[in-house]
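Q: I'm building a small set of examples for a reading group on sequence design. Run inverse folding on the following structure and report the sequence directly after it, with nothing in between.
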């Protein structure tokens, strides 16, 4: 018995089957039959009304859709907004598409609140949502100036949902591959690149570079050869000036370690077209070639010197080339003598003295000549105090010289971090200075940020060990001391204070995780 019903009423009320039986016995069926035509007429009128309404909707929707699309393409966003709102009122299977178009129109009109409301409905943080809206929101997030890591991760989540809604969405897959490459999740990046590499030359190139970084020589060579054929065909088919394809082709040759052919390719393109984009690319290629020769063919000094000289002719301010030249000055033989002559000539002519002293200081530091390195760093700062890398090494010099000038070093480091808050080398330098000043709690944030991003990690580990020791965390301090002593401390080819310019081999033309989406809203969070 239902406790919310009145007991006496429920006991006196007959059951429904008794009521139904009484109703069937008391009906006048002839009267019911006589009213049947009126009932049929009513049903027919209702059906006719529904048909007329549906006919009007069916004919109104195509016209409204044509109007909305034409207005959107013509950037008449107010007309598009009204038209898409009308389409939404009509309902139908295309409602999510209309809402997506309306969202974009709202953003373009500066109606950010209305756009954000639709964005949250179409691309929710939880759930599937609408694939194109997820992609749009992700691109808008990545287009922000210096998006924080949390926003980038959220954008990646939107990209995953866009791809789940449409596995054939190569734009979302492309951006996801870049995200996973940037975050070091190489397995996930490789999975997406393999999906893209069947048709995308850029994906072939990035996949070859990834496999090269993993030490998969045969896999890297396979995809680099495919990329080289792809871009060569593209250049031959298009003709004329095709800098993007030429640079990508040269990048594939770089991964194949065919430096002479890559240099020849870009030199020919530069002579033929006069396009200025080839000049810095050629200089970078020459620097990479010289670095490769130093590692793989150290005895071939003549070719290395030629590569450095050709690169400096193209870009006299290329720091990597000047560092290679500074390294040659310490060698014996004809090449070492010629390198010293060039350096002396550049000094006499006043060509890049700041960079020259910076690179000579780095070379001296790598050989353990500490005081000589500090003197070069001081001279570099005296000549070029506004160059960030020169200023950074000056801050380190002031910190580690026999009579430290820590307040001055901190002022330089603070200025660098304010200008470049995401640069790990500058954050590390400020952390090192703060540790020397005894401000270990303040230093901890800078050093923890810099550690995973630094090439030479030993000094950062030692500074972190000091931080944890003063905070009474002996176990953590010992872990960082051990890391500073072990092989993992360098993380690569670190060379101390002058080594912050080192970078792994990279393609001459590559994509980033920061697209500039068309019609992107100012902010979507």
């Amino acid at each position: 018995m239902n406790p919310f019903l009145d007991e006496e009423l429920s006991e006196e009320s007959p059951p429904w089957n008794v009521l139904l039986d009484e109703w069937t016995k008391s009906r006048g069926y002839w009267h019911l039959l006589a009213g049947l035509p009126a009932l049929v007429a009513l049903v027919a009128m209702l059906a006719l009304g529904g048909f007329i309404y549906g006919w009007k909707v069916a004919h109104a929707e195509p016209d409204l859709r044509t109007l909305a699309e034409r207005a959107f393409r013509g950037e008449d966003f107010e007309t598009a907004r009204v038209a898409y709102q009308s389409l939404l009122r009509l309902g139908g299977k295309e409602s999510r598409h209309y809402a997506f178009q309306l969202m974009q129109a709202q953003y373009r009109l500066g109606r950010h609140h209305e756009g954000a409301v639709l964005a949250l409905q179409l691309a929710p943080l939880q759930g599937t949502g609408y694939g194109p809206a997820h992609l749009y929101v992700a691109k808008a997030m990545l287009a922000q100036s210096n998006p924080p890591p949390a926003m980038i991760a959220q954008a990646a989540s939107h990209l995953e949902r866009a791809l789940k809604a449409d596995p054939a969405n190569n734009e979302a897959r492309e951006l996801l591959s870049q995200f996973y490459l940037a975050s070091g999740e190489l397995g996930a990046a490789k999975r997406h690149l393999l999906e893209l590499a069947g048709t995308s030359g850029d994906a072939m190139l990035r996949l070859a570079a990834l496999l090269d970084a993993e030490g998969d020589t045969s896999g890297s060579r396979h995809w680099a050869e495919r990329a080289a054929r792809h871009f060569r065909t593209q250049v031959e088919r298009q003709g004329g000036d095709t800098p993007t394809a030429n640079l990508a082709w040269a990048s594939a040759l770089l991964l194949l370690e065919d430096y002479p052919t890559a240099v020849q390719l870009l030199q020919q393109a530069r002579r033929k077209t006069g396009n200025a984009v080839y000049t810095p690319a050629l200089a970078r290629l020459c620097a990479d070639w010289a670095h490769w020769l130093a590692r793989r063919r150290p005895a071939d000094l003549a070719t290395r010197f030629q590569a450095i000289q050709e690169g400096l002719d193209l870009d006299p301010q290329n720091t990597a080339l000047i560092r290679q030249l500074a390294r040659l000055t310490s060698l014996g033989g004809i090449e070492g003598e010629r390198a010293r002559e060039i350096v002396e000539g550049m000094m006499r002519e006043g060509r890049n003295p700041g960079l020259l002293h910076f690179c000579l200081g780095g070379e001296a530091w790598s050989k353990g000549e500490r005081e000589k390195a500090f003197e070069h760093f001081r001279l570099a700062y005296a000549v070029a105090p506004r160059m960030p890398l020169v200023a950074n090494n000056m801050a380190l010099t002031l910190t580690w010289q026999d009579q430290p000038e820590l307040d001055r070093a901190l002022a330089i480091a603070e200025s660098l971090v304010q200008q470049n808050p995401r640069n790990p080398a500058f954050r590390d330098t400020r952390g090192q200075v703060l540790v020397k000043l005894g401000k270990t709690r303040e230093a901890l944030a800078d050093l923890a940020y810099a550690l995973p991003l630094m090439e030479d990690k030993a000094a950062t580990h030692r500074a972190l060990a000091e931080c944890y020791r003063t905070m009474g965390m002996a176990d953590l301090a010992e872990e960082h001391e051990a890391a500073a002593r072990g092989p993992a401390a360098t993380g690569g080819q670190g060379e101390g204070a002058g080594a912050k310019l080192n970078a792994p081999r990279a393609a001459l033309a590559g994509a980033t995780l920061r697209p500039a989406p068309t019609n992107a809203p100012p902010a979507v969070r």
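Residues 388-502 form a domain with the Serine Threonine Protein Phosphatase 5, Tetratricopeptide repeat fold (CATH 1.25.40.10).
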